[in-house]
Automatic annotation (TrEMBL):
It comes from Croceibacterium selenioxidans. Residues 210-358 form the Peptidase M20 dimerisation domain. Pfam families: M20_dimer, Peptidase_M20. This is M20/M25/M40 family metallo-hydrolase. Residues 1-18 form the signal peptide.
């Protein structure tokens, strides 16, 4: 069996950055492989606690003491808290946030077994490679390297890894409750940068300072039903269909905040399609520019960046082919621009549906919450940008607002700034998070360690 170092030499282009911290890079790959092999999926046989134990073992060997590492069982999962105490207890801690659980993966659907990590052609394959066991391992290995170098943090550093981010986010909320006094959170969930499809070189790096709110609404129509040979004016399926058609065609008012405006301004310079680039610049100047809106709304990658979106995703109705439907239901999923409440969005959808027979219910539960954008504090942003440029060179840096959901929303909701700012980059064509044949480029190893050494040194020294 080849050594980890030999695998790295074969898998990764040799660069100055890749040679800088070989021990940390080898440990990051080894930890990634060890944790990918542990099936940390919600339900029977969930091994998230074993993932936490793998990190605990590495941290203890790296200089942490037992009392500073907690693995807290919660239902069938667990979360990890590992503290590196700072010299000044009056300073609020900085948190490094990730998650240890992954979504389900069926081996029969994959080219390779999803829970058998494979290094091939410069990539690490396996469930969790990009979301987000590689990045969590890279951060742990980097902090161990920082401690090995003799660094003494002034501000306490806390590794806070949740155990159910992909499902209920119960542990995410529990971690937030414990660290409402944090100075800031660095959420390293997923790749922050993008490689060029043509050259494989860094195209740009981004940090995420806001995210849209996830909401599910159930729409329901109930009728007495009856025999299909004697139709009535009120038909549950027809009534629901009319409401869904109106919702599907509806476009929420365009919006910008500081983060999305900066995104459109900076990303337009990298957009190869002149018409789309011009629309992005025009939208940043005037969100109500009709011509720009028409172009952006027609592009699936842009439509979610300019406004709240609500789309029908599930529908069910009727109970027999020869009977009038007694009940018809649908789910409308919304991704809501920061600043709007669930009741506000529900009321707008009810107006759009214009069908009194349709009953709306918010069925999101406690798996999501509205959260404001994190502040654009230069003292934080400059740290991330410095680290990214140390790692990847003078790449364009673009702020982002996510249309998905992450642990950051819980911190932002209680007033703790949280920023999605991981070390890694990926080609768009390599994005298989939650999908088949998930992978991450091992080109990230050397620059990744460089990034975390820079960022954590700066944040823990202030």
């Amino acid at each position: 069996m080849r050594s980890i170092a030999a695998v790295l030499l074969l898998a990764v282009p040799v660069t100055a950055a890749a040679q800088s911290h070989p021990q940390a890079e080898a440990q990051a790959l080894a930890l990634s492989q060890e944790t990918i092999a542990l099936r940390s999926v919600q339900g029977e046989g969930n091994r998230t606690a074993d993932v936490a134990q793998a990190f605990r073992k590495a941290l203890l060997a790296g200089g942490w003491v037992d009392k500073d590492i907690e693995i807290v069982p919660v239902d069938d999962t667990a979360y990890l808290i590992a503290t590196w105490p700072g010299s000044d207890p009056s300073l609020k801690p900085v948190l490094l946030s990730a998650h240890m659980d992954v979504v389900e993966a069926k081996p029969e659907d994959w080219e390779r077994d999803p829970f058998t990590p494979v290094v091939e052609n410069g990539y690490l394959y396996g469930r969790g490679a990009s979301d987000t066991k590689f990045e969590a391992s890279l951060a742990v290995a980097s902090l161990i390297e920082l401690r090995r170098q003799g660094f003494k943090p002034k501000r306490t550093i806390v590794i806070a890894y949740s155990g159910d981010e992909e499902t209920t986010m119960k542990t995410s909320r529990m971690i937030t409750d414990r660290f409402k006094d944090a100075e800031l959170v660095i959420n390293i969930d997923g790749a922050s940068g993008t490689f060029s499809e043509e050259t494989g070189k860094p195209l740009y790096w981004s940090w995420q300072g806001a995210e849209k709110t996830y909401i599910d609404f159930q729409l329901e129509v109930t009728n007495p039903g009856g025999h299909s040979s004697t139709p009535r004016p009120e038909n549950a399926i027809a009534q629901l269909s009319e409401a869904l058609a109106r919702i599907g065609a509806y476009r929420f008012a365009p919006e910008v905040n500081d983060i999305t405006r900066a995104y459109f301004e900076k990303a337009s310079a990298l957009q190869p399609e002149p018409e789309l680039a011009a629309a992005m610049r025009a939208f940043a100047k005037d969100p109500n520019d009709a011509a720009a809106l028409a172009i952006l709304r027609n592009d699936p990658s842009m439509a979610g960046r300019i406004a709240t979106t609500c789309v029908p995703t599930m529908v069910q109705g009727g109970h027999a082919p020869n009977a009038l439907p007694q009940r018809a239901t649908a789910v409308v999923n919304c991704r809501v621009f920061p600043g709007h409440s669930n009741p506000e969005i529900q009321a707008e959808l009810e107006r759009v549906a214009a069908t009194p027979a349709v009953k709306f219910s918010d069925i999101t539960g406690d798996t999501s919450t509205a959260s404001p954008a994190s502040p654009l504090k230069p003292e934080f942003i400059s740290v991330f940008e410095k680290g990214a440029r140390k790692a990847w060179g003078d790449v364009p840096i673009i702020p982002m607002q996510s249309s998905g959901a992450s642990d950051s929303m819980w911190f932002r909701a209680v007033g703790v700034p949280s920023y999605g700012a991981s070390a890694s980059m990926s080609k768009d064509s390599d994005d298989f998070s939650h999908g088949l044949n998930e992978r991450i480029s091992l080109q990230n190893l050397g620059p990744g360690v460089t990034y975390y050494l820079s960022v954590m040194t700066d944040l823990a020294s202030k």
